[in-house]
Amino acid sequence: MSLGTRILNSIVAALLPLFLTCAMASALDVEKLDGLFTRLQSAGADEAARIEREIWIEWSKSGSPAMDLLLQRGRDAMSLGDYKTAVEHFTAIIDHSPEFAEAWNARATAYYNSGDYGPSVADIAQVLVLNPRHFGALSGFGAILEETGKTDQALEVYRAALAVHPHLQGVLDAVSRLETQAEGQEL
């Protein structure tokens, strides 16, 4: 066995426990999220709000303090209305961790808030590929569809969001509003 092969084997052996620990931690997060989503289906309004906060906390964990800091800086920029800076922060995260769905969702929100619906929809699509239960992305997509006059599609997407999170008040209001509009058009 060559020296290079022995060194590589040593490195793999040293890092394997770390990789297994990370894989198990990810599995635990999935189990935790599965439990939260199960509880969400039958929760009352107050409990649903607490569960939703727990879900957002889990979704916001990138696994990297540096990425978490960038996420927070992007959110801070967004709260100040500085969407360009927010997009830059979220893009930096995506460049380094393209599997981190919440970075895509945050950037989609920044694009939406700045009126850039095309890039927002593209990012929402990526969020939903990575995290099909992302009720925030579904809600945002429904809002874009509604704002662009695609009310039938918006209603479908809003209903999909409610299937995941039945207590989203803004989405419940939107469904009611769109159903009322549809009934008025049928008369």
Automatic annotation (TrEMBL):
Q: Which organism is it from?
A: Tabrizicola piscis
- The residues bearing each TPR repeat, given as ranges, are 67-100, 101-134, 135-168
| GO annotation, cellular component aspect | membrane; TRC complex
Q: Which GO terms describe its molecular function?
A: molecular adaptor activity
Instruction: From the Swiss-Prot or TrEMBL record, give the protein name.
Output: Tetratricopeptide repeat protein
Concerning InterPro entries, the annotation shows: SGT, TPR-like_helical_dom_sf, TPR_rpt
Which GO BP terms sit in this record?
post-translational protein targeting to endoplasmic reticulum membrane
Pfam families this protein is in? Answer: TPR_16
